Amino acid sequence: MLAMAISPAAAEPPLKASLNAMGGIPIAISAWGLDQQSFDAAVSEVGARIEQLEAMISTYRPDSEVSRLNRGETLDSSPADLSFLAFVAKWIAGDTGGAFDITVKPLVELWRSCTAQQRLPTDAEYQAALATVGYGHVSVLLDGTISFDMPGVMLDFGGIAKGYFADEAVALLREAGATRCLVDVGGDIVSWQPADEAAEPFRVGIRHPRGGGEVFAVLSLDGGAVVTSGDYERYYEIGGRRYCHIFDPRTGRPVEGVLSVTLVTRSGIDADAYATAVFVMGPQVGGKFVERNEALEAVIVFDAGSGGLEVYVSPGLLERFELLEAG
Ligand code: AMP
Ligand code: MG
Hints:
The protein is α+β, with helices and mostly antiparallel strands. It has 2 domains: 3-54 and 160-323, T-fold (Roll); 72-148, ApbE-like superfamily (T-fold, Orthogonal Bundle). Helices cover 32% and strands 26% of the residues. The protein has helices at 36-57, 65-70, 80-95, 105-116, 123-130, 161-175, 268-292, and strands at 3-5, 15-20, 26-32, 138-140, 146-148, 180-185, 188-192, 202-207, 215-221, 224-230, 235-238, 241-244, 258-265, 297-303, 309-313, 321-323. It has an 8-stranded antiparallel sheet with strand order 2-3-6-7-10-13-14-15. The chain has a 4-stranded antiparallel sheet with strand order 1-8-9-16, with no helix packed on it. A two-stranded antiparallel ribbon has the order 4-5. A hairpin with a 2-residue loop joins strand 11 (235-238) and strand 12. Helix 3 (80-95) runs parallel beside helix 7 (268-292). Bound molecules: adenosine monophosphate and magnesium ion. Magnesium ion binds next to helix 7.
């Protein structure tokens, strides 16, 4: 939905399939080097794997492990997948100075209920929600114990899960013997091909944040992940004004002035979390952050203040970035 695979060019066309996971996330799979039967088997494994992960982290399902944690239970033996995800999320929270933080859930709830009542949160409500926000409240132990240090802490993996699902799908396709593949989980793209100078790059389009479905630029990649966080994906509308679905966990306020961040790195889990983090940091701080980190590249579309939109492209991505003609 966000970034779009335009044409994973290669001499031979891939086998393709699309799935809808339980949470309604559209999944598109392209793979090369498999016969139809092994491809179909791999696709159904991907479907089952994503269902399993969804069932664990969905906050819409009262019986999910994350819902149990959010009701105040300690999980002494969380599934390995959940402790892995929580561990990575905590690590990235530390690495981004708390710009990415899975404990934003109380803010999501606050904005949801204020939207239903068509009013803005009060200062007292912000203070109450912020009291439980902060990744330091979460402990993840290697034996799988996940616990919170105070009541009211709640987790939301919405900023990292799709990238992880896409990584898992690619791992399954590789195990099945694919020689090249690309998976799109609700716009989060992870691709893989063996290192080979002669290989055709994958071409992935970046959506214009105000252009309906229109693509404004194309990235060429040898493999790896491309994930976009966009203010147009989901938002809260109060009194005819739109508020972004991504919060600055330090102030509790929805981010303003950033329209989209497309993050390029090796894995989907990192691309997803760092896209959300750079969105919170904004173009100046976020741009410097990706320039300091050799593994991260980004395209940031932001409001320059004068009414026009500006595009930041990190230096390491310039060679692989192509702006399309307007119109
Ligand atoms: P994404 O589209 O990947 O940027 O994820 C946005 C979703 O992640 C939101 O809908 C929230 O559920 C959650 N979220 C919002 N703000 C943050 C944040 N600062 N850190 C982590 N997750 C967030
Ligand atoms: Mg994200």
